[in-house]
Amino acid sequence: MAPTAVFSVFLADPNEQIFSGKARKVTLWTEEGAITILPHHTPYAAPLLPQRSILLVREDGSQQRFSIGEEGGIVCVRGNTLHILLG
């Protein structure tokens, strides 16, 4: 069985690191609509819509949901790494 492709995810707000680990995919809302980030995604940066959620599928297949507050945030993909900064 081939290993599942994953990428590094770092999710933080100004006060703390919320998540750091590997993921199979992350779905979130930008001004362009809902997008899903997969391993080896092309470079990308965009503001996040406020009061939406982020759905992260971990390396083991389990799912975790995070809320985006009223301040929104920003998403940036570079290499095989996704950075999300909230508020």
Describe the model.
The chain has 87 residues and is mainly beta. The protein has one domain: Sandwich (ATP Synthase, domain 1). The chain contains no helices and 8 strands. Strands 1, 2, 3, 4, 5, 6, 7 and 8 form an 8-stranded mixed beta sheet that branches. A hairpin with a 4-residue loop joins strand 5 and strand 6. The mean pLDDT is 95.
Helix-strand sequence: EEEEEEEE
Give the number of helices: 0
Major sheet? 8 strands, mixed
State the low-pLDDT regions, or none.
Answer: none
Q: End-to-end span in angstroms?
A: 40 Å
Number of strands: 8
Summarize the structure in short.
The protein is mostly beta strands and 87 residues long. The chain is built from no helices and eight strands. The protein has strands at residues 7-13, 16-30, 33-37, 44-48, 53-58, 63-67, 73-78, 81-86.
